[in-house]
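Exercise 3.2. Students should predict the tertiary structure of the chain below and write it as structure tokens, then compare their answer with the key that follows.

Predict this chain's 3D structure.
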Amino acid sequence: MKHYIAYEGSEFVIEWFHDQKGEAIALEYFHKQPEKKQRKLLNLFRLMGDVGKIFDETKFRNEGDKIYAFKPQPDRYLCFFFRGKKIIVTNAFTKKTQKLPPGEKELALKAYQSYEKRVKEGTYYEE
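Answer key:
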């Protein structure tokens, strides 16, 4: 398995979550975006990674159940915080409604559980 680091700052390391097959759906989504949209997200990663907080809720928000969202309009990149000053980005989508789609949050929660279990087992960061 590869180690998918999106940004390494002084406050947080931001990583793309990958499943047991090595697939990283948020990273795949990111690569399909135009350069301008990619830059918007990378700027948010840089701010969070270096400062440790994004004060503007229109750019980063707690979605409940330990799930957060980077919000480079109109996209959403769901993530969670993990010990060792890590932020793990799980999945991404284009926002089309006011509310967070339950299916997207479910994906993020499943990724969180998978990550936690695989880190505990020592199988997530295999080379």
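Discussion points: The chain has one domain: 5-119. The chain has a mean pLDDT of 94.
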